[in-house]
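Q: Trace token order:
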Amino acid sequence: MNNSMPRRGPARNRSPWAAIGLKILAAFLTLAAACLVRIPGEIRGYAYQVVKELYRMHTLFASRHLVTLRGEHFLVRYSPGNAAHAPLVLETAEKAYNQLADKYYFQGRDIPIIIYPSRAELNACFGWPASESAMGAYWAGVIRVLAPEAWIPEGDDVEEIFSSSGPMVHELTHLMVDNLTKGNVPRWLTEGLAQSEEYRLTGFQFAAPEVSRNRFYSFRELDGEFDRLEDQALAYRQSLTAVEYLREVYGENKIEQILKALAAGRNMEEALQGAIGVNLEGFESNWQNWVIQNKSSGSRNSEPGRESFDDERC
């Protein structure tokens, strides 16, 4: 466990004006993020980094009333009732950081991780319905996770289960890919990379849904409508297999080349053409044929993954 000492933030006695100020700032950041899509690629990337840093600062200010546990790279914030496992969250995050940072050319400090006592509170943060079963979520430089005790059955080995089946590797991969590409990354690609790293480092994978030629979401759907797709398990699995296809057919270095092209402001069509000489439509067709030929939703279908705890990563 990390030996960093937690500290309490200021008393929770915000004035009405402070609350109004926070709402105005949040609205500004949302509007600014929406406007970024109208700015040319490379300039948009730098502008996104500024907006992301403002959101990180906003999150740290809004969560100042929580207990803070500081590590080498992270600031974990939590309610007093979640003190027992906050060091575990920090330790798991620091381990994942050391496993991923060099690969994604990432350097960072004071990365916020907010622990939520219940699914309802985590869901409310994003306006999700109460039925949403996510254990964690990443957005704009901030990682939010469900407290381990809220989803791991009492009496089980919390440390082993959270380390091997928790959301830290997944969400931290999102953060690092987002940073590397300056936010210019298709949803299916970041979800595929997050699942791939999760499996590589912990052995965790979602249950594999049945896949047939008539059950493919298009990349356009996976990028623009991911959270609204009816079969979420299929959306996640297709994202994973697209990354597996890239890695197995073209090599790991081509994935890195694609990410760097996206970081330079290229769109996915241009990034694919530059890296593998195939446009997005051709890549999509070839990938679907590859999946069908493997008679599964992925090349690892015969390898059992760990129990998913009815979880979704975001």
